[in-house]
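pipeline: protein-struct stage 2 | run 1193 | Pentatricopeptide repeat-containing protein
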Amino acid sequence: TTLIHGLFLHNKVSEAVTLVERMVRKGCQPNVVTYGALVNGVCKIGETDLALTLLKKMEAEKLEPDVVIYNTIIDGLCKYRHPDDALNLFNEMDNKGIRPNVFTYNTLISCLCNYGRWEDAAGLLR
């Protein structure tokens, strides 16, 4: 995981993804922490579609994404102007029983308000 973080620090996205693929080929299954590092790295560079793909891959591998992974993707979606996707992911998270925290609400409310979606933002507080 430390190596993955380091690769992202130097904008070596494809190398980080390749490293994880090599790990899998050698029988080392990534865990939630490994996926968290990948999701964080791809969201920081605006690759939110890849982050969503990684989320689906985690679920397919029977790994349970935690609130931090969801928050990272929601934050990335908001920063890169995808408020509808962020709200959809929030609803998906809630439907799966993953409880949003203060960061989740702050991020999403701020995002929705930035787009003038006051009613949607207020709806999160109900």
